[in-house]
Amino acid sequence: MEFSTEPVVTLERADIYQGQKLVLADVHFEVNKGEFVFLIGRTGSGKSSLLKTLYADLWLQTGSAKVAGYELHKIKRSDVPYLRRKIGIVFQDFQLLTDRSVEDNLTFVLRATGWKNSADIKKRISEVLMQVGLGTSQKKLPHQLSGGEQQRVVIARAMLNEPNILLADEPTGNLDPEVGDQIMQVFQTINNAGTAILMATHNYDFLKNFPARILKCENGEVKEA
Amino acid sequence: MPKKKKIGSYPNVMIVVSLTAALFLIGFCGMLVIQSKKLVSIIRQNIEVRIFLEKTLSDPGRDSVLQIVQQKAFVQTNGGTPAVTFVSKEEAAKEFMEGTKEDFTAFLGENPLRDSYQVKIQEDYFEEAKLKLIKADLETINGVYEVVYQEDLADSINRNITKLYIVLSSFALVMLIIIVLLINNTIKLAIYSQRFLIRSMQLVGATNGFIQQPFLLRGATQGLVGGIMAIILLVVLQQVAIRNIEGLSMLQEYDKLAFLLASLLLLGVAIGIVSTYQSLARYLKMALDDLY
């Protein structure tokens, strides 16, 4: 079996726009398989816009980018769902559906991405919940879980389709430091199993406690820090 | 315990009620058109031309006029027999006297009326110009004294019925436009209330087809339910009208009514699907953040 060593994310001379406004110019970097990368910068520096461009919510207008094998400068609208299946998204505003249990939240995602066999769905859900340390919470509703547990479910949801990379935007923003560290450990476990992670954060303690490569958004540019 | 409201609740009742109202009004216009057409058809089928014969015409002459008239293409036939009736001058006098209650033979001394043929004309010739041509044609036959028909009746009925059709179809068209806009708006609001679900599906990589499927199915179901309810209301209205308006049952054409009601059902489903598809297509092209 042949393993590709191609980076999961490659950006070359990419300009990132939010609407008509250019927020980051001439962006170029790579994220390799199994790499953990922090994305830091002030509020409004373009971190979220960059991540949104990577999952094709914002359209790449100039430059080129390749994510999980999809060329964003050429991608057709109909291919976007398939790109997103290869990316796990953990965003603050992408919360669980509050009207259904953990299991139903995860089943919803699997069904939406083409899973049909109920036994396979149950098996995959058990696997991802074990991976994030929530083996016994399948039947609970989101409001019956703590903030940290909810975030674990969100991470489990992002892992369902075995993505090449997880894009996380402030995944611990609403959590207290102790729970935040626990969530970071979950991310590390996932990363150690081979999934690349690109995480935008304001929490500089993580940079000390979980040393990894850092990209910094500043003055309309992305630099290695 | 009050029922828990699901994320992105859908105003099903509002949509079905709007659809029912729209389809009912459109169906009502359709029923009026069918019945007015039938009424006009009845009037047209009864239009007659009267051929008065020369007083001196012999019996064989009368028969030869009848033969020529029966062969004309414009003469209505009832089961293959041309609808031509002979009215002798005696019968005509009797009819006249019954109508006027006056015995004119008493002071005239003789019957001044003529033998005549009553000819029923085919519906297609129900136009003033065509009737004029028929009159001119019949008057060329040897032994025919004069041809008479009720002038201007055809054109006046045609004019009025055309006006009625224009008014009714404009009304139905305006109704249709208003309702499509209304439904579109309602569905837009409904989909807006479901934006959280749509966003979740988009973020996890659901295809547009998968996202659209349940919405379209719901649109079609709502159209179907709206259609069925409109049909029930129309049938009830029709039955009540038939029982209360004398002679209305003569104007009922059940095959056409069945076609109209089936069309309403299809129209309801089509409006449901098309409006939902249109609103969804716009949403699915938006950036995820613009959904808020």
TrEMBL record, chain A:
<dbReference type="InterPro" id="IPR003593">
    <property type="entry name" value="AAA+_ATPase"/>
</dbReference>
<protein>
    <recommendedName>
        <fullName>Cell division ATP-binding protein FtsE</fullName>
    </recommendedName>
</protein>
<dbReference type="GO" id="GO:0022857">
    <property type="term" value="F:transmembrane transporter activity"/>
</dbReference>
<feature type="domain" description="ABC transporter">
    <location>
        <begin position="9"/>
        <end position="225"/>
    </location>
</feature>
<dbReference type="InterPro" id="IPR015854">
    <property type="entry name" value="ABC_transpr_LolD-like"/>
</dbReference>
<keyword id="KW-0547">Nucleotide-binding</keyword>
<dbReference type="InterPro" id="IPR017871">
    <property type="entry name" value="ABC_transporter-like_CS"/>
</dbReference>
<dbReference type="Pfam" id="PF00005">
    <property type="entry name" value="ABC_tran"/>
</dbReference>
<comment type="function">
    <text>Part of the ABC transporter FtsEX involved in cellular division. Important for assembly or stability of the septal ring.</text>
</comment>
<dbReference type="GO" id="GO:0005524">
    <property type="term" value="F:ATP binding"/>
</dbReference>
<dbReference type="GO" id="GO:0051301">
    <property type="term" value="P:cell division"/>
</dbReference>
<keyword id="KW-0132">Cell division</keyword>
<dbReference type="GO" id="GO:0005886">
    <property type="term" value="C:plasma membrane"/>
</dbReference>
<dbReference type="InterPro" id="IPR027417">
    <property type="entry name" value="P-loop_NTPase"/>
</dbReference>
<comment type="similarity">
    <text>Belongs to the ABC transporter superfamily.</text>
</comment>
<keyword id="KW-0067">ATP-binding</keyword>
<dbReference type="InterPro" id="IPR003439">
    <property type="entry name" value="ABC_transporter-like_ATP-bd"/>
</dbReference>
<dbReference type="GO" id="GO:0016887">
    <property type="term" value="F:ATP hydrolysis activity"/>
</dbReference>
<keyword id="KW-0131">Cell cycle</keyword>
TrEMBL record, chain B:
<comment type="similarity">
    <text>Belongs to the ABC-4 integral membrane protein family. FtsX subfamily.</text>
</comment>
<feature type="transmembrane region" description="Helical">
    <location>
        <begin position="257"/>
        <end position="277"/>
    </location>
</feature>
<dbReference type="Pfam" id="PF02687">
    <property type="entry name" value="FtsX"/>
</dbReference>
<feature type="transmembrane region" description="Helical">
    <location>
        <begin position="223"/>
        <end position="245"/>
    </location>
</feature>
<dbReference type="Pfam" id="PF18075">
    <property type="entry name" value="FtsX_ECD"/>
</dbReference>
<feature type="domain" description="FtsX extracellular">
    <location>
        <begin position="47"/>
        <end position="147"/>
    </location>
</feature>
<dbReference type="InterPro" id="IPR004513">
    <property type="entry name" value="FtsX"/>
</dbReference>
<feature type="transmembrane region" description="Helical">
    <location>
        <begin position="12"/>
        <end position="34"/>
    </location>
</feature>
<keyword id="KW-0812">Transmembrane</keyword>
<keyword id="KW-0131">Cell cycle</keyword>
<keyword id="KW-1133">Transmembrane helix</keyword>
<keyword id="KW-0472">Membrane</keyword>
<dbReference type="InterPro" id="IPR040690">
    <property type="entry name" value="FtsX_ECD"/>
</dbReference>
<keyword id="KW-1003">Cell membrane</keyword>
<protein>
    <recommendedName>
        <fullName>Cell division protein FtsX</fullName>
    </recommendedName>
</protein>
<dbReference type="GO" id="GO:0051301">
    <property type="term" value="P:cell division"/>
</dbReference>
<feature type="transmembrane region" description="Helical">
    <location>
        <begin position="164"/>
        <end position="184"/>
    </location>
</feature>
<dbReference type="InterPro" id="IPR003838">
    <property type="entry name" value="ABC3_permease_C"/>
</dbReference>
<feature type="domain" description="ABC3 transporter permease C-terminal">
    <location>
        <begin position="170"/>
        <end position="280"/>
    </location>
</feature>
<keyword id="KW-0132">Cell division</keyword>
<dbReference type="GO" id="GO:0005886">
    <property type="term" value="C:plasma membrane"/>
</dbReference>
